[in-house]
């Protein structure tokens, strides 16, 4: 009997070694094959290598407030634009580079992964925004731009802060979803986790496929997971951001791409608009992907490769429309 058990254990161990070896071979192949085909997310920004005529760029490190402050020498537009990136960890400094030369003051912020912040996107205290407002001397006319998870954050903050007068949401979320820890909310308020959407069992299988792709470094997206979550939610109001609490005078401009492979931003943008139709504009970017503003379809962050959708041509066209609409709306809002 003992020899039989040893034989079984030996077979199991050999089987596991074969599986692990196969996974490592697949992962190695993907790492080499996609080596020069991805855009690698930069979690730092060297202002010494960036010069913008007539714009001062300041590194901000004050409590939980970390990022970059773009201050034009000749500020020609009212208010301040606060910018949030997505779950990949960037602060979208390109936004400051693009719009500060036009006379806008822009503050691009990290909300995790920097000094005095959670190391990863999990249970981030939204009170860091109070410190950002204090840093800016409590302005009463804010525009907040957010992309992806940053759009989720921007929308959430707008339900709580009256100083936010204008919102630009790029690939937004209508609900609060977990961050990097699946069992935990991405956000906390007063030390308590903010309610997330329910994750139905129908989402488990596509989630396993998603994590397998991450394990072997195969380009992947989260779209199937989120599609299943939304389609099978028994109570769609659980975890939904109560956008009806946002003052009707707040301007809201949303962009959503039809080939977004990270999450169903068109569906979620329509949910937002259905619950808050007044003063809300939604621009659909046909054929574009989740990160249409970069010239790559694949991004790499934290050792994982993501396919974000679209084509180089449709993404370029989407960015041109996106850029012109933002410039038009900012000029109208921030006179």
UniProtKB/TrEMBL annotation:
InterPro entries: AB_hydrolase_fold, BAAT_C
Superkingdom of source: Bacteria
Gene3D superfamilies linked to this entry: alpha/beta hydrolase
Residue ranges occupied by any BAAT/Acyl-CoA thioester hydrolase C-terminal domain in the UniProt entry: 124-292
Sequence intervals crossing the membrane: 12-35
One GO molecular-function entry: fatty acyl-CoA hydrolase activity
Gene Ontology BP annotations: acyl-CoA metabolic process; fatty acid metabolic process
Keyword Flavoprotein: no
Record key words, sorted: Membrane, Transmembrane, Transmembrane helix
Protein name stated in the entry: Acetyl esterase/lipase
Source species of the chain: Granulicatella balaenopterae
């Amino acid at each position: 009997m003992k020899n039989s058990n040893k034989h079984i254990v030996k077979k199991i161990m050999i089987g596991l070694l074969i599986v692990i070896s196969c996974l490592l071979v697949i992962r190695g192949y993907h790492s080499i094959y996609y080596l020069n085909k991805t855009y690698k997310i930069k979690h730092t920004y060297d202002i010494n290598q960036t010069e913008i005529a007539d714009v001062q760029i300041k590194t901000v490190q004050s409590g939980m407030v970390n990022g970059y402050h773009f201050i034009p020498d000749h500020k020609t537009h009212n208010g301040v634009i606060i910018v949030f990136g997505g779950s990949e960890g960037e602060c979208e400094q390109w936004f400051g580079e693009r719009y500060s030369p036009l006379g806008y003051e822009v503050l691009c912020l990290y909300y995790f992964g920097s000094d005095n912040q959670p190391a990863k996107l999990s249970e981030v205290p939204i009170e860091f925004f109070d410190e950002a407002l204090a840093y800016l001397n409590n302005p009463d006319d804010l525009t907040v731009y957010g992309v992806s998870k940053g759009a989720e954050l921007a929308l959430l903050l707008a339900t709580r802060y009256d100083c936010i007068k204008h919102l630009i949401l790029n690939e937004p979320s209508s609900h609060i979803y977990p961050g990097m820890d699946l069992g935990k909310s991405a956000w906390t308020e007063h030390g308590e986790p903010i309610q997330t959407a329910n994750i139905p069992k129908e989402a488990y299988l596509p989630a396993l496929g998603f994590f397998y792709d991450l394990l072997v470094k195969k380009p992947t997206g989260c779209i199937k997971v989120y599609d299943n979550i939304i389609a099978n939610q028994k109570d769609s109001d659980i975890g939904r951001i109560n956008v009806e609490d946002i003052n009707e005078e707040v301007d809201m401009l949303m962009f959503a791409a039809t080939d977004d492979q990270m999450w169903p931003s068109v569906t979620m943008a329509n949910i937002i608009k259905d619950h808050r139709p007044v003063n809300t504009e939604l621009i659909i970017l046909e054929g574009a992907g989740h990160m249409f503003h970069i010239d790559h379809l694949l991004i790499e962050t934290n050792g994982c490769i993501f396919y974000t959708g679209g084509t180089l041509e449709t993404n370029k066209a989407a960015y041109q429309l996106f850029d012109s609409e933002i410039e038009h709306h900012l000029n109208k809002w921030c006179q």
